[in-house]
Hints:
This protein is mostly helical. It has helices at 2-7, 27-50, 53-60, 67-83, 87-101, 110-125, 138-146, 150-153. The protein has one domain (24-153). 63% of the residues lie in helices and 0% in strands. The longest helix has 24 residues, at 27-50. It is globular, with a radius of gyration of 22 Å. Residues 1-24 and 149-158 have low confidence and may be disordered.
Amino acid sequence: MVDSARNQGAWRIEPFGKTKGEIGGGGHLKLIRNIRAAGVFHKAAKSMQAGDYPAVLDRLDGFQAQPYFMAKAELFRAMARHRQDRFADAVHHYDNFLINHLADMPRKDRPYVEEYAKFFRSRAQARIDPSTPLYSSLEELRKHAVSAPFLTRAEFSV
């Protein structure tokens, strides 16, 4: 019985310590999924830059990817809804990003994106249009926070 199993390849060890069933099992599919997700996210980013916020939301509807792209997608959903004056939805997505996705951002980017999300969340909560540029430096965000309405100032670490 053991010999017949060996002859069928079930017990044979392949190079690099993998069994026959593990070779080619999913690595390529995962790479293809990641490339497709990056493509979808890139198109959503282009739509965001063009100001086509409904297209951003359409592209990210049902979006599945590695945690980093999921985090960025959640932030994009919040930003798009904020730009559409859907303030309550925007606050929900900013909160979701801060609570569930911030840890998925690269460590060096976390302080910036946290400040960014808090800044725009506070503007959405105060029902203020995000009139400041979507992309700015951490220093610029802190400058904006100093001049932010009184209700939103406590959100920032300035």
